[in-house]
Amino acid sequence: MKVRWTEAAARRLEEIHAFVASDDPAAAEKLARALLDLGESLRSMPHRGRAVPELPGTGLRELLHGSYRLVYRLRDRAVEILTVFEGHRLLREDELE
Questions:
Q1: Chain-centre distance of CA 81, in angstroms?
Q2: Correct CATH for 2-92 of 3.40.190.80, 1.10.10.10, 3.30.2310.20, 3.40.50.970
């Protein structure tokens, strides 16, 4: 399957990178690379993520990496990555628009 990052997801990844880089640029690079690789890993196993617990029945899935959540959905033979964020908070549907 093809993996597509939405503009919102790419922007969130950049924000995470910038925040971490303000303290530790090397850690920011490592984290951003790990999150990108996690998203790309869905190319071969798109169904492996769990359903997003706070939005049941939406078809949204997520993968976890440390304290981060990468949220995606399957669309037209592609994986669409919708957002990535710190896992200490709940996802709201309005954040996906």
A1: 6
A2: 3.30.2310.20
Amino acid in position 20: V
Of the candidates 62, 71, 73, 52, the one whose C-alpha atom is nearest the C-alpha of residue 13 is: 71
**Counting every residue, how long is the chain?**
97
- Cβ atoms within 10 Å, residue 82: 22
List Cβ neighbours of 92 (8 Å cut-off, separation of 6 or more): none
CA distance 43 to 37: 10
pTM given for the model: 0.89
28-40 pLDDT, tens digit per residue, is 999 999 999 999 9
Q: What is the pLDDT of residue 76?
A: 86
